[in-house]
Write a structure and sequence with these properties.
- This protein has one domain.
- The chain is built from eight helices and eleven strands.
- The protein has helices at residues 19-23, 29-36, 63-73, 90-103, 171-179, 201-215, 235-249, 253-265; strands at 40-42, 86-88, 108-119, 122-132, 137-140, 168-170, 188-189, 224-225, 274-278, 284-288, 293-294.
- Strand 4 (122-132) and strand 5 form a beta hairpin.
- Helix 2 (29-36) crosses helix 4 (90-103), helix 5 (171-179) packs antiparallel against helix 6 and helix 7 packs across helix 8 (253-265).
- The model has no long low-confidence stretch (mean pLDDT 94).
Length: 298
């Protein structure tokens, strides 16, 4: 399998003028994740949503933008002393980790799905790092301290047992299991406390589209939407996309190649410039992910 395309930075993972920040980080994944946990804080960490007037930081889509915010505050190398952390979410931990690995030539990508270990009895939307160790793809949760007693190796997250048994399942697998009547989609979403508003079949379906975009190097925010997403989304089309994603995960090179070509050719599958952002920060508006133009909130 040729995995070299995931060693190149995407438009969103590219550190730009701040490349040296990432190039100085350890390539050892466990050590890298330890550094990241000192640089980023989840906007819901400790049950406190947001950090004062810094809400806008959670909408910094591009790694270059995140690094610009960080470096404006503290020019010291990461891992040297305490610093004011960036406010973000799981996607930002993962994308920064992926960008750092790509900066060292390691094929890596973000994986979008649902974790069973963040809330008891509920699959919480989550993003992991996936990197190629030379023989296989390895899943890593950069938000978790390996010494936290999670019951599994957070730098080699196990999978393959199936939805409902794995600690993390890709959005495509959850969608396929839901469509087969094997799981209740109402048990998957942003949080059990926010169900049913931010849980259920429509949300799982949208996350299949997010998973596809991230796999193709368009690592949007989890609250970005476009094309075939939303309440009126196309479930039949999602079935096909999810099936190809699952097949690609199982090593089907043809499915991987078909997804990549289809994503480029079919305007329904990925952002074509503009996405609509409905952020927890309160921002509601259109963003051009190519030019980085942000329209006033609506």
């Amino acid at each position: 399998m040729d995995v070299s395309r995931w060693a190149a930075q995407s438009a969103m993972s590219d550190p730009g003028v701040h490349a040296s920040v990432l190039e100085a980080l350890p390539v050892d994944v466990e050590r890298l994740c330890g550094v990241l946990r000192g640089v980023v804080t989840h906007y819901r960490a400790g049950g406190v949503v947001g950090v004062g007037e810094r809400w806008e930081e959670i909408d910094a889509r591009w790694v270059e933008s995140m690094l610009a915010l960080d470096q404006a505050r503290d020019r010291r190398p990461w891992g040297v002393g305490e610093r004011v952390p960036l406010v973000g979410c799981c996607r930002d931990f993962a994308l920064l980790g992926v960008a750092a690995l790509r900066a060292r030539g390691v094929p890596a990508r973000t994986r979008v799905g649902f974790a069973s270990y963040l809330e008891r009895g509920f699959g919480v939307d989550h993003v992991l790092i996936e990197y190629w160790d030379g023989k296989r793809w390895v899943w890593v949760d950069p938000m978790l301290d390996p010494g936290g007693g999670w019951g599994f190796d957070v730098v080699d997250v196990p999978h393959g047992a199936g939805v409902g048994r794995d600690v993390f399942s890709s959005a495509a697998r959850v969608w396929s299991a839901y469509r087969a009547g094997e799981v209740d989609a109402g048990r998957f979403g942003v949080s059990g406390a926010l169900a049913p508003m931010l849980a259920g079949g429509w949300l799982v379906r949208d996350y299949v589209w997010l998973e596809l975009a991230h796999r193709q190097g368009v690592e949007t925010l989890l609250w970005d939407g476009w094309g075939a997403m939303g309440a009126q989304g196309d479930s039949a089309l999602t079935d096909v996309v999810a099936g190809l994603l699952v097949a690609a995960d199982e090593g089907d090179v043809g499915a991987e190649e078909e997804l990549a070509a289809w994503f480029v050719d079919d305007e329904r599958l990925g952002p074509r410039g503009w996405v609509f952002c409905a952020s927890p920060s309160g921002y509601r508006g259109w963003v051009d992910v190519d030019s980085r133009m942000v329209e006033p909130a609506v």
